[in-house]
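Bumping with the actual sequence this time:
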Amino acid sequence: MALSPVMDSFSRCSVNPKFLDRFYDIFLSSNPTIAPMFKNTDFAKQKRLIRAGITMVMMHADGNKTGTQALDRIAQSHGRHNLNIAPSLYPYWIDSLIKAVQECDPQWDGKLEVEWRAALRKGTDHITAQY
């Protein structure tokens, strides 16, 4: 999977200080079960984790073993015996991230959306397969 356009897009979004705040605004309001899961969250720490997590998803989608190993750890922490994040919630995560990227990447277009969705889906499929 050629991820250069997606990584470039992520870099453009990452320089926008509102990007991750916007993502969480969208994500937390996307489904009524999501916001309560974050009620005691340190969002400064969470934003560092999500930035790293997105990078690992991209690495995994590109066939990088380090990315896959990181997603295995995320699958463990988010699985039924820990945070218990149901597989049915991951599409909300993808859609929320796509909306935030669309708002924050000035070069956003339909082709980029297809590439982003493919990469994110590959990562979330890997995580949810271990649920």
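The tokens above came from a reply further down the thread. The chain has a mean pLDDT of 97.
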